[in-house]
Design a protein that fits this description.
Alpha-Beta Plaits, globular, Uridine Diphospho-n-acetylenolpyruvylglucosamine Reductase, domain 3, Uridine Diphospho-n-acetylenolpyruvylglucosamine Reductase, domain 2, 5-stranded antiparallel sheet
Length: 495
């Protein structure tokens, strides 16, 4: 855990910066009193907290340009922030920096129902896009569990997904163009309204960069026609292994569900009293598998799904009878995180991806880790693309439990790497997983990442110390290999 700085001392030496900001920004857009800054001390991962020196909430692009130019002039770090729903500490403030929130840039600027696109500002809520375009029979496909609150700017920063990303893709597959401001105050557009654009594909580089390359002020997103029909099968299994194998068999059968989610027994028993979705509480694991398309396509695909699940050993199959029941099935899945608060003072939501064939193996090993660390873990995740979201239950008021929860999470991430997966699927790296970056990538790869960062931000002022670990950090983490008595980087001081 990071120590919280005393906020009063943080403003020393910032009077000139504040004066320059006040020359363009209204006074209500600049927050410097401790009680004003307190709500911004962390994002959704509350284990990492830091009081920012200053919080600025610009109301338009011109003000953002002024903020960035001013901060660069004074060599002051800038941490971008969307809705603050991130779960990796990516929006954790810098004690000697400016926290730049984009929540006031919340307008949907243009909807083109013919081209099926929308131009939105970064503070627009994910769900608000679908609500605004529903009148045209369209919606925005990426649907993170936090979609009622999370913003499109944050989605772009973290490359967010959701329960329907298996069929319709992540944010990177649904954003066509972004307009960004660099640390120099320059306006740059990446991508285009066309299906493709000339030059280097910097749009894919930018999406998922966690605010380290620039600030989004506008995005063009793809819209999807609402399907004629959608139906969910809830399949119950008497073992985790059987459920994991069923996921593999669905994909192997050539079926790409609109969504394919898994919840273990602890998760369903945690959620059911909260949502009353009709989950099978006796099952060791359940799968939620959705088909969408024309009515004939859905009817045919549901029959194929049922056959696969029965062959895979499902002990119970329940098909949503109507749209209300379908939404209720998904409501249970999407409310799993808040439901954890009913059974535990705190929870630590992890995020890692693994090959689908490894689901049963990894969940079995995670169950063994529960005994090792003396903590409960509920599993609810995007099974179709192997994106795990273990919820480690603990008490943040107990320092020992905090330490064990962090160690538990770190071992899960190391296991993901070991079986051929990655340390993040859609939550980003931030501060939470920066040590595991040393395990996931070689030093040469990390240096390449940093080279891209410096191409956009030579002074490393945008969201510094996040995502890309330093050489020293990797050394301290112990990811140094000694072969035949020859040690890499001998110039580094050893600890």
């Amino acid at each position: 855990m990071m120590a919280q700085q005393e906020p009063a001392a943080a403003l020393n030496g910032f009077s000139e910066l504040i004066a320059e900001l006040e020359s363009v920004l209204p006074s209500h857009c600049i927050l410097s009193r401790p009680e004003e800054k307190k709500p911004f001390e962390c994002d959704g991962l509350t284990l990492f907290k830091e009081m920012p020196a200053i919080v600025v909430l610009p109301e338009n692009e011109a003000q953002i340009i002024h903020v960035l130019k001013t901060c660069k002039k004074h060599a002051v770090p800038v941490v971008p922030r969307g809705a603050g729903t991130g779960l990796s500490g990516g929006a954790t403030p810098h004690s000697q920096g400016v926290l730049l929130g984009v929540s006031k840039l919340n307008k949907i600027r243009h909807i083109d129902p013919v081209a099926a696109t929308a131009v939105v500002e970064p503070g627009v809520r994910n769900l608000a896009i679908s609500e605004a375009v529903a009148q045209y029979g369209l919606y925005y496909a990426p649907d993170p569990s936090s979609q009622i609150a999370c913003s499109i700017g944050g989605n772009i920063a973290e490359n967010a997904g959701g329960v329907h990303c298996l069929k319709y893709g992540l944010t990177v597959h649904n954003v066509m163009r972004v307009r960004i401001i660099t640390i120099d105050g320059d306006i740059v557009e990446l991508g285009s309204a066309a299906p493709d654009s000339t030059g280097l594909n910097l749009l894919s580089v930018f999406i998922g960069s966690e605010g380290m390359l620039g600030i989004v002020t506008e995005a063009t997103v793809k819209l999807i026609p609402k399907p004629e029909a959608a139906t969910v099968i809830m399949a119950s299994f008497d073992s985790i292994k059987a459920a994991g194998d069923a996921v593999r068999e669905i994909i192997a059968a050539g079926i790409i569900p609109a969504g394919l989610e898994m919840m273990d027994q602890r998760a369903t028993q945690m959620v059911e009293p909260f949502v009353k979705a009709g989950y099978d509480l006796n099952a060791q694991a359940i799968l939620l598998c959705e088909s969408d398309g024309t009515r004939q396509e859905v009817e045919d695909e549901i029959q194929r799904m049922k056959a696969v699940f029965e062959k895979a050993g499902a002990v119970r199959l329940q098909v949503s009878a109507n749209e209300q029941e379908r939404l209720l099935f998904w409501a249970g899945r999407k409310n799993a995180f808040p439901a954890a608060g009913r059974v535990s003072p705190d929870y630590y939501c992890m995020d890692g991806t693994i090959p689908r064939k490894q689901i049963a193996n990894v969940l079995t090993q995670m169950a063994e880790m529960e005994s090792k660390y003396g903590l409960r873990c509920a599993n609810v995740f995007h099974a179709g693309d192997g994106n795990l979201h273990p919820l480690i239950l603990f008490d943040a008021n107990n320092p020992d439990e905090v330490r064990r929860a962090e160690d538990f999470g770190a071992e899960i991430l190391e296991l993901c790497i070991k079986v051929g997966g990655t340390i993040t699927g859609e939550h980003g790296v931030g501060l939470e997983k920066i040590n595991q970056m040393c395990s996931q990538f070689t030093r040469e790869e990390l240096d390449a990442f940093m080279a891209i960062k410096r191409a956009f931000d030579p002074e490393e002022l945008l969201n510094p110390t996040k995502q890309i670990p330093t050489l020293n950090r990797c050394a301290e983490y112990g990811k140094m290999h000694v072969h035949a008595g020859q040690i890499k980087f001998p110039e580094l001081e050893r600890f």
